[in-house]
Amino acid sequence: MRGKGLWLVFFALAGLVLATVGLVVGSADLSLHQVGEALAGRGEETVRMIVLQVRLPEVLTAAAAGAGLAASGLLMQTTFHNPLAGPGVLGLTGGAAVGVALVMLASPLWQALPVSRDLLAMAAALAGAMAVLLLITVADRRVGDGVTLLILGVMLGYLCSALISVLQAASEAGALKGFVLWGMGSFGTMGLHRLPWLLVPVAAGLLLALTLVKPMNALLVGEEHAASMGVEVRRVRRTSVWVTGLLAGTITACCGPVAFLGLAVPHVARAFLRTADHRLLMPGTILLGGTLALACDLVVRMPWAGGMLPLNAVTSWLGAPVVLWVLLSGKNWFRR
């Protein structure tokens, strides 16, 4: 355990290095001295604006979103005993997308409200995710079966996709383009003044996820065995679903539907740590999720990419090979 814990230190250090590079590199490269001066509130005003208003919020957003999605993915995979489960498996991402679609594609309905469209879209995305989460919770009280709940979540996701398709068919070209761009995901849309809307819920969700470490370990050997050990399986399942809803709903509202990080990162963490013990795996997954999200954000912002590379394209390059590896390798990191 102690030797494997060194990986946590490595993930944390790698994240700090990538965060530092993220503050330095961009369309206008800065020196470490300039970045340090800007963070201390000194130096040129232009440099301070770039660092404090653009790059620092983007770096913090990427780290928080990656950590939150990775933690929620691990919770879903363990709760439902499905190595291909992720934050979107219960239809939460689809519910958030419906909320944004209603704001962006049916904008005449909301133009009279004295609220900016960005703020309204974030609120609608979170409301959509929470509405789906409420339906899942009500269903869990009726069926009480994890597999049925998983299938219900997938069906809700399909229903949300169908509703979005109807809204897209009836929308104007400009509104449709804006929604498509939102669907590509981005860590660069959160300003410094809006950053607490993301960081506070994600920090709360991560703390709750860490409190679920012991019951998650019990669930590894099956719900019946966990119940024999005194674990309240349904309560733990509901808690993990609500934590996932808080994390995935908030991150989708702020960053768009970021693909594959929640699904792939827990498997990458298992491959490095070679353990299923959540006392090590949960913090490792959180740290690795933030680190890989920072790496993806750097690729998106590289000058040769021209700032036009979609975030979801980069995360898919990371996630799709991992999923194929899980399916084809025959190595069951989930139970090792």
Question: What does this 3D model show about the protein?
Answer:
The protein has 336 residues and is mostly helical. It has one domain: ABC transporter involved in vitamin B12 uptake, BtuC. The protein contains 14 helices and no strands. Helix 1 packs parallel to helix 13 and helix 4 runs parallel beside helix 11. 44% of the residues are buried. The model has no long low-confidence stretch (mean pLDDT 84).
Task: Give a nutshell description of this structure.
The protein is mainly alpha-helical and 336 residues long. The protein has helices spanning 2-24, 32-39, 45-79, 92-105, 117-143, 146-169, 173-183, 195-211, 213-219, 223-228, 233-255, 261-273, 278-301, 311-329. It has 14 helices and no strands.
Shape: globular
Question: What does the main sheet amount to?
Answer: none
CATH topology: ABC transporter involved in vitamin B12 uptake, BtuC
Summed up, the domain count is 1
CATH-wise, what's the superfamily? Answer: ABC transporter involved in vitamin B12 uptake, BtuC
The percent range for helix content is over 70%
**Overall SS class:** mainly alpha
- Put simply, the count of helices is 14
